[in-house]
């Protein structure tokens, strides 16, 4: 778990400012090089919550510490590719778990990359993930008790404090002198101490001084069971001292012989049939830094021009920073089982940034860097392969005949649908497949739930209907109650109700689905083609002639506020509505752009009037207040589609005048 940037509090006896972020106190009562640093308020709060909300899952601390130790070994192996001396004649990477009944401690150590003093302060003293603090401060009291929400942070190192009331970390970075050892200690309350110590061994040793009620953890049997349950998949051997039964003491006692407790093989290299579901799930928690199970995964070996193995997971819930541009994302890249990098975002397109997992390539050079990844043709092939696999996995869920699959897809859509929608504009090659995965709300159910696929829509299309109709507004209710829908509702033609910001982007990039054009109900000259019968068409034509004079008069009155005024075929109940010209930007999109501080062209709408509405009929005979009537007609049409009035006060005055005139029998 990465912690918040911290500074000292309360002010110490003496303090120095470090790199703008930390205040450090030198505790005069202890050794000269020992410093005490205070956690920031949020860190204290987080620790407190973690201890309480995760208590019932307390065993996970071991998984988290072993997971970190494994990552540290991976990092060392990677760094040693360029500098073999980092192994310091100890190339066998491993993780050790030990316990001391008398001292009531557990120790988890690794001979991985270790940490320098600065790294200890940053890694065990700040929350590096951007947005964490904001996310955290937004949690309500009840949410703070929710283990799954707290677990979203990636509980990491600080989960040690669930079972320990004091944690000591001894570490030295690989390649440094023995004198560069660091000792970090904290009781997980307000502060931690840090000092330089001699440490001949490289790597990290974490000692947990157990809380009063945690003595059951001081058992070889118990620790082995936890390791096998959560950490069997860890690549490095996790060793413990072998134990044997001591007849005299009547208990298990540790011998000096080591034994490996886990399988210690790279899970993704094993055959699918040999991997249990739980092993896949636990591995996900390690690579995904997640507390919860994944929703689904795909594991495949690709052979041919490119040889690689992929084990990719769709998480069960969206991380809180899914929408944060600076958030870490991407998958772990290995080359022939050697860890190369975390968060290799080039291995998947941005709209699939929520996917976690591993790609292990047999072909890439071991010295591959992020820069090389950006230009590599091999990476492009892997990226295309991974994208297709994930889309296939999603299709399997979406098309599943079983309720469980459907439910999973609905869950996926709720968590990641908005990210997937971005793919319509980002991934031209897979646009049709992504379109098949989209889900929308529609007038079919008239609820905000996004559950209608384009295929469902097409299957329900009316005879003679050749377009997929949608309305886009800035809220579900604005879309659902849009006057533009009136004729569609009357004729029973389904319309997709779009109210997500990204929906405008989707329809801007998706012109058709299976040969059926997507058409806005609020744009262009509505032509329902064979969906209108002859009598309706004749009625429309005669209305156009009959109302020509009124239309011209309104146009003259509204002058440059409108591009055109015409008789509508869309409305049954409302007197008027605004529509955008066929090739103009929709009013909703223009509003979204403006709200985002971007430039939007100043387009004039078309006002359509309903020749059957009493207000419009009444207007034909209005004289004195015609301009007020015309303006109110325009303004209410703008309000009905979610627009904002340029001059609300004048609108209110006009309404009041008209109401008064009516009560006085003048209007
Ligand atoms: N055994 C270790 N050896 C070397 N570095 C470590 C070790 N344990 C932790 N670290 C460093 O401390 C950092 C913070 O660890 P922490 O467990 O809090 O978070 P994390 O593993 O980065 O992510 P998450 O919070 O999602 O688990 C790690 O990223 C790593 O750099």
Automatic annotation (TrEMBL):
Source species of the chain: Denitratisoma oestradiolicum
NCBIfam families: PRK05218.1
Gene assigned in the entry: htpG
Protein name: Chaperone protein HtpG
Keywords recorded for this protein, A-Z: ATP-binding, Chaperone, Cytoplasm, Nucleotide-binding, Stress response
Start and end residues of each stretch annotated as A: 1-370
Binding site for ATP: 64, 68, 110, 115, 123, 129-131, 152-157, 204, 370
GO-annotated cellular components: cytoplasm
Top-level taxon: Bacteria
């Amino acid at each position: 778990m990465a912690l918040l940037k911290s500074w000292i509090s309360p002010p110490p006896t003496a303090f120095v400012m470090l790199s703008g972020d930390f205040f450090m106190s030198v505790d005069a009562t202890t050794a000269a090089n020992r410093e005490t640093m205070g956690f920031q308020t949020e860190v204290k709060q987080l620790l407190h919550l973690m201890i309480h909300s995760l208590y019932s899952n307390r065993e996970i601390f071991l998984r988290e510490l072993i997971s970190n130790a494994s990552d540290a070994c991976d990092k060392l192996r990677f760094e040693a590719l360029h500098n073999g001396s980092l192994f310091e004649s100890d190339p066998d990477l491993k993780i050790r778990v030990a316990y001391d009944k008398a001292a009531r401690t557990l120790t988890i150590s690794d001979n991985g990359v270790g940490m320098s003093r600065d790294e200890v302060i940053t890694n065990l003293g700040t929350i590096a993930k951007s947005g964490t603090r904001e996310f955290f401060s937004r949690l309500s009291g009840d949410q703070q008790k929710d283990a799954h929400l707290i677990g979203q942070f990636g509980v990491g190192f600080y989960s040690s404090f669930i079972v320990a009331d004091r944690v000591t970390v001894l570490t030295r970075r690989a390649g440094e002198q023995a004198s560069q050892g660091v000792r970090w200690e904290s009781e997980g309350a307000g502060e931690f101490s840090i000092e330089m110590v001699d440490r001949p061994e490289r790597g990290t040793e974490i000692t947990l001084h157990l809380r009063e009620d945690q003595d059951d953890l001081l058992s070889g049997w118990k620790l082995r069971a936890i390791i096998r349950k959560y950490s069997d998949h860890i690549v490095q051997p996790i060793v413990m001292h072998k134990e044997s039964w001591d007849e005299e003491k009547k208990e298990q006692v540790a011998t000096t012989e080591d034994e490996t407790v886990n399988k210690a093989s790279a899970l993704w290299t094993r055959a699918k049939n040999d991997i249990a579901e739980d092993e896949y799930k636990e591995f996900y928690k390690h690579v995904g830094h997640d507390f919860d199970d994944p929703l689904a995964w795909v594991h495949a070996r690709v052979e041919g021009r490119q040889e690689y193995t992929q084990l990719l997971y769709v998480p069960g819930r969206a991380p809180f920073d899914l929408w944060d541009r600076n958030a870490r994302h991407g998958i772990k890249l290995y080359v022939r089982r050697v860890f190369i990098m975390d968060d290799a975002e080039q291995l998947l397109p941005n709209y699939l940034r929520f996917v976690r997992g591993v790609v292990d390539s047999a072909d890439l050079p071991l010295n591959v860097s992020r820069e090389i990844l950006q230009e590599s043709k091999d990476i492009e092939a892997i990226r295309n392969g991974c994208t297709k696999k994930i889309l296939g996995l999603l299709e399997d869920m979406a098309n599943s005949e079983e309720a469980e699959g459907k439910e999973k897809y609905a869950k996926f859509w709720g968590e990641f649908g908005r990210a997937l929608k971005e793919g319509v504009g980002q991934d031209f090659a897979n646009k049709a497949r992504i379109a098949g995965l989209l889900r929308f709300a529609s007038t079919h159910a008239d609820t905000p739930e996004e559950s209608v696929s384009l295929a469902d829509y097409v299957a329900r299309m009316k005879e003679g209907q050749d377009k997929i109709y949608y309305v886009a507004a800035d809220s579900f209710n604005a879309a659902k109650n849009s006057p533009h829908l009136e004729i569609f509702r009357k004729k029973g033609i389904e319309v997709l109700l779009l109210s997500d910001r990204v929906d405008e982007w989707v329809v801007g990039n998706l012109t058709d689905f299976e040969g059926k054009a997507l058409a806005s109900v609020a744009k262009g000259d509505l032509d329902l083609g064979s969906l209108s019968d002859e009598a309706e068409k004749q009625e429309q034509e005669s209305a156009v002639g009959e109302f020509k004079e009124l239309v011209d008069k309104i146009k003259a009155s509204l002058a440059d506020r409108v591009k055109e005024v015409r008789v509508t075929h869309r409305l049954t109940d409302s007197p008027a509505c605004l529509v955008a010209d066929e090739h103009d930007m929709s009013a909703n999109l223009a509003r979204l752009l403006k709200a985002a501080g971007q430039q939007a062209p100043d387009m004039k709408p078309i006002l359509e009037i309903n020749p059957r509405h009493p207000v419009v009929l009444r207007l034909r005979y209005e004289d004195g207040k015609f301009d007020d009537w015309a303006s109110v007609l325009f303004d209410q049409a703008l309000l009905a589609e979610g627009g904002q009035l340029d001059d609300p006060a004048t609108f209110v005055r006009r309404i009041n005048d008209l109401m008064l005139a009516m009560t006085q029998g003048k209007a």
